[in-house]
Amino acid sequence: MTAVTSRMPIAHALNLGLRHAMEADEKVTLIGQDIGQLGGVFRVTDGLQKTFGDHRVVDSPLGEAGIVGSAIGLAMAGYRPVCEIQFDGFVFPAMNQIITQLAKYRHRSEGAVTLPVVIRIPVGGGIGAIEHHSESPEAYFAHTAGLKVVSPSNPQDAYDMMRLAIRSNDPVIFLEPKRNYWLKGDVSTSTTTPADLDKAVTVRKGTDLTLVTYGALVPVAMKAADVCQEEGRNIDVIDLRSLSPIDDKAVVASVQRTGRLVVAHEASRSAGLGAELAARIQDEAFHSLISPVIRVTGYDTPYPASRLEEEWLPGLDRILDGIDRSFTY
Amino acid sequence: MNGEPISLLNAGGNFTSSPELPFETDSTDVLALYNDMLMARTVDTEAIALQRQGELGLWPSMLGQEAAQIGAAHALNPRDIVFPTYREHGVAWCRGVDPVDLLGLFRGTTLGGWNPTENNFNLYTLVIGAQTLHAVGYAMGILRDGDVGTGDPDRDRAVLVFLGDGALSEGETNEAFVWAAAQNLPVVFFCQNNQWAISAPYSVQSRVSVAQRAQGYGFKGVRVDGNDVFACLAATREALAAARAGQGPTLIEALTYRRNPHTTSDDDGRYRTLAENDAWAALDPIDRLRTYLQSTGLLNDANVEDISRRGKALAEHLRAGCRALPFPGHASPFQNTYADLPDELERQMNEHLEFVEAGE
Question: What CATH code is carried by the domain that includes residue A240?
Fold first, then answer.
């Protein structure tokens, strides 16, 4: 495989990551609804069944528990399954298998059995969808010991993190920012080491305030930083990438420089990732804080009807408002 | 399918062949079946005693299900793999799992107890029906390994998954049946219908027999007398042979009875009668095999003495082994959760170890 760089959307980068992982390891096997001939409802697995056959790209019957439960069995038999759950709101029938079985098996077997299963889930709102198609369930998974939870925000990470997740010996919940599937960027297939799967990345250097987010909100956070720049405020933007474990060292180091932290996520506020980060920051960087940690998030309601989502979601204006509140405290 | 279960060895210990289920006693080490059934009962009896003495927190007894478990287990080849519920103590015994290792889960020294890769016997599964899907996935792996239908007995293999009548009501079992049928997987579903899911009788769960349900999924269902070790062995042999040969799944219903409460914490007097229990005690699987062995002259003073001695040694091994089960290390929950220990968890581990050390 010679390294090439080309411009492509996140969906294609994920596809390429899957393809290269499948080429590198014949045990990598994809399971999901409509992922074969159709290529997935978002076309992320487009063409893979044609290349690798229906034994490696398995069009499953409906049944999310079946997808994850059979992936567990396949992993026990020495395979590296990559599951696709069609939409965020449909992962819940599989929660029993994920929480009581997948996450716990290594612990129960005292390390004798590892289950290298990746569960891909398109997440988040902003696409004008009907109910159950716009949710952000990351906190459920991040709260579950034994799982890793990651979310790429750009094509390069989509490619790199997919391959790293498949290589991981721990189960990985892989959250794909669905509204940005068609966001383009350069992807290098270079074999040089990408950032570790569990490391946050500073995507913009700044000195005045730390803005932490992940997934679909990263480009929004970058825009917010641009606006702030015009006002003379330098924002340090961190793309968390890994939601479990959380790379809190990166956030702590930044807050120790800036003294201010704003966390943004689409998921509901209470008991969310923002709450976790706020707790860790007060623990590790209490004396560096100039103002309280501000959370800009979805609200503690079910995801609203899509005509309301633009105001419900933490968009540019709400993030800027959060930043203002931090500076004017 | 919905009628009387197939029986080869009746409650009186008489063997009758059946055109529905070919079985030859000559081709089977009947004495080994008897020995293993007795050893399984010994494990069960000792574990109950250990629970009464406070050495175990809980024990799910298998009393009355010896024929189903030992019969099914004797149909296995070494390369076949088993996915058990939490009551397959007899199957574990036949697979070579040290019975002391079964106790750890119930003594609180472990959440597993044995290395599932060593004996092709998976860890117990407490969440009802969850293991049926793992069995399906493993069978998908066997299919992809090409270890089905080669005709090479050293290569072809299958999955034997145990479930109870209660699991038939779980959605995941439905998914497992759908997947196994659609992909024609090398998996045998062995349902011990012991008629009680804690206090829920089978009648609460279904209007048709367990075996009859297979028809709706498009694979074979077989109903056997679960207290008849010959019928259980013959049905499982046939089903596993078909699975290894690439002929797909089978659902076996072994109709039996859980003679003890669900677990040592249960009080079955609140939901069923002693008379019902007595009626099933009269159908005891071990008694009928003993009668058969006596009538055929296979049981003599020497082997009776031999089995008795082995039973006593096993009981002693369990008593001593249970008390000697090592306590888990303070760091073990942290170390075993992830293959790569995350920084935060390492911090928590160190915090905990310092706390523990300060208290000691």
Answer: 3.40.50.920
